[in-house]
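Journal club prep, shared notes

We agreed each person brings one worked example of a sequence with its structure written out as tokens. Mine is MFS family permease. I'm keeping it raw so we can talk through how to read the token line rather than staring at a rendered picture. Sequence first:
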Amino acid sequence: MATTKIHARALLRASGGPRYAIALAVDALGTGLLRPFLLLYGVMVLRLSASATGIAMTTGVVMGLVCMPAVGRWLDRGARSTVVAASMLVRVLGVALLLAAPAGHVWLFATAALFLGIGNQAWPAAHAALVATVAHGRERDAALAGGRALRNAGLGAGALLATACLTGGTTALQALAAATGLAYLAAATLAWSVRLRARPAAVPPNGGAGGTAPRMRALLAANVVYVFCLNVPEIAVPLVLVTQLHASPLWAAAIFVANTVLVVTLQVPVTVLMSRFSRRTVLALAGVVLAASYLGFLAATSPEHRWSAPAVAAVSVVCAIGEIIYAGSATALVTALAPAPVLGRALSRFQLSTGLGLAVSPAVMTSLASHGPAALWGSLAASTLLSASAVATEKDQATGLSDSRHPARAGS
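Then the structure, token by token:
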């Protein structure tokens, strides 16, 4: 029978321990200080054009994905906390380049965005591999959910603190960047001090990464579409509210804050509640809930009346629940499907699909929105339902190791 209760102490232990949890919180707080305002840093501090800044940031995200195969191989050689620390340290270098870049130097900004992108792309796979090495079965799923809740709390707190400081202009932005770099450095030091790696039994004797990672073709393709839900509160909803419904931007801000609060408070309870069902079933259900929310957005935005904005806010709660179900099952499913010797490669492939979805979703959603609510929400609903169907019908490869993990050991 599936575990439906997770105690706080057990959850903390399964998440990597107190020091690692502090590292995650510090890293998330630092990320929240700068990441939402990186575009403003390029425009206000470095005096770059908005288009040049945006292109540099997008290039950094996309090029950051190129490092994922190497990250996967590193993880498959047994590294765990070292990879997490490295993903944080590379962002320290990115912040240092930001602070050193003179006004007008777009290439230094682009290089900084590249290092930040590498760290941001490498961290999720490294973190998931570390948790999968420490925890097992449904306890691992809850630990992954707890890490996401903690990270969202840190991101939200950092963003709120940064927003309060923005009245200081360019000086405040530079101070926020410096604080971000110090936070990344502190987090990397804490993560490295955990000194966790997989036991040699989980890795082939020659130090390589033998075995074959599960293909998961339908899952990876579906994940590109699923991950659009993460950008709905940041891009699609504000775009529709402000440009189509002519509502106050305060509605978009309130919806974003509400989404963050829901993720922080419900991610672990919902993941534990869903543990009575198979991970693949839960992931398919997430697609159905997300598709239903997209149809709800379509119904709320098609007639332009004074209740449209409140209706969008109400539907956003459904969308947030779908996002929570998706986030609690997707990575957990990958860690359950992949044998331990190729866990890193499986997670790197999954992160590639996630990064691709996050990279293309702003362009796709803004393009669809220009053709009206039916084009935007109808297309998202149809593609998400198709993805849910693909997830539900894909056959798992028989690995014999789906829910087992070799225990971890302390080490360098």
